[in-house]
Every structure is written in structure tokens, then in C-alpha cells.
Amino acid sequence: MSTIAIAGMGWLGLPLAARLQELGHQIKGSVTSQSKQEELKSYGFDIYRVEIAEDEIRGEIQGFLAQSEILIILIPPGLRRNTGHNHALRMAQLLDAVEKSDVKKVILISSTGVYDDAQGKVTEADAPKPQDDKGKQLVEVEQLFFSSPAVKTSIIRFGGLVGGTRNPVKYLAGRSGLSNGAAPVNLIHREDCIGIILAVIYKNAFGHIINAVHPEHPTKEDYYTQQAKALNLEPPQYDSEEEETFKQVDSVNLKSVLGYSFQVQP
Questions:
Q1: What is the pTM of this model?
Q2: Is it the case that residue 80 has pLDDT exceeding 90?
Q3: Which long-range contacts (CB under 8 A, 24 or more apart) does 116-122 make?
């Protein structure tokens, strides 16, 4: 079995690492803090401390990438927190290190945020047209890795993430005056995130762009009302204005490239 490096051992990276380890792969993980490194090492994982800045990489990047055939990048852009950093510059630093390493195949986790909220129905055949800084940087990172001659990259664009303790309705419950209630949701459960990553690895499906969103798209109002009731929370209240713009992310490549069927309803 191959050695797989996972950059980012968080909400998705940690259960993914456990699943791959169960399947017989040797797993190397990266974290940014010493306390997290020590915690995960106590669980039996091979963990390296790596901090990626815009102008350098600090820590054990060579050891992390050494003898790794596949790299899975699960590093969030962090742009919502207004840190002021440039995610594209950080990922360019990572790509430079990857191109000098043993890694030959990359799975880059991106986001449906590359599509503008007014692009309507889109698949992988539609070019992203982001209007905000986050979307533009995500597209720049995608292009960096996808065009690298040194590695073969598949890009997975996940929709809104659900699973474990993560459910967006917890942040919406009881709120009023919300907009876009008639817009479709674009969500995916963590179990399907893991399943799609495994499918790319086991089908050797590198060199593709894959939109990863559950094919059912209820409206935000219907979905979050149902979710709130299921959790005994006060449903959010949406304004009743007619929606003129929306984004619905669908996929062609999940079936044609991976033959993937969804396992969990978000």
C-alpha cells in the first residue's frame, strides 16, 4: 500500500487518515501546533509540524513529504477570518516544496466558492467566475496545481460541509430577516467527502476537476426549517422576496469519472 501525506488533520483530515490507515496505507499528517502534534502522535499517527507562510515554510516539510506518493491538501484558506494573508502565495510555497519532493499525485480540496452566487446551474464544464477575493484566490490555487508539470492533480470542490457536530442550521436557528430563502442548498456530508477522496485514489483518477455536492438541492428555507425542527431548534425566518439569482452546483465527473453514488443525505 502507498504512503499518503495529509496536509491538515482537522474535521475531515483526521477521520480520513483513520480510514486510510484501516485500509493499510501508511499515513503522514501535518499540523501547525506542537500540542496538536503531540496529541495525534499519541493516537499512533506519524505527525509533522508544518507552518506555511507567504514567503517560507517553517517546520518539517521535507520529512512530511519524503517517500509520500500521494498528497491530500486539506488546508482551508482562512479568508473569512480577515487574517489579511494571501492564501494563493502560501499554496505557491507548498507547491514549490511538493515539486522538489517524492510526491507524484495530489488531491487538492477546493470549494464550490469558486463559482459566483449568481452563476445559476453549473457543472465542471462551466468556468468559475468568482467576484470576491476568496473565490479568486481559490481559482488561482487550483490553476497553480493543475498546471504543474511535476505532479498530477485532481481538484475536488466540496460544497457546504455537514457531519459530526457540524450543521449550519445551528448558526441560523432563531434568526429572522434572512435572504435567499428560495436559493438551492449545495451541501455534502463528511462521509461522502471521504468516499469521494477514496474513489479518486483507488480509481487512480488524477488529472480531473470534480464538483462534490449532493445531487438534491432543496431550497434553503425548506432545508433549514426541516433541520431546525429535527434538532428541536427554532426555525430561521426568511424574507419572502422573489429570488432572481442563485447558484446550483452539480457534477458530471462524479458519475463519468468516478462512478460514485452518494451514501448520506446531508
A1: 0.95
A2: no
A3: 116/247, 117/183, 117/245, 117/246, 117/247, 118/245, 118/246, 118/247, 119/247, 120/245, 120/246, 120/247, 120/248, 121/248, 121/250, 122/211, 122/247, 122/248, 122/249, 122/250
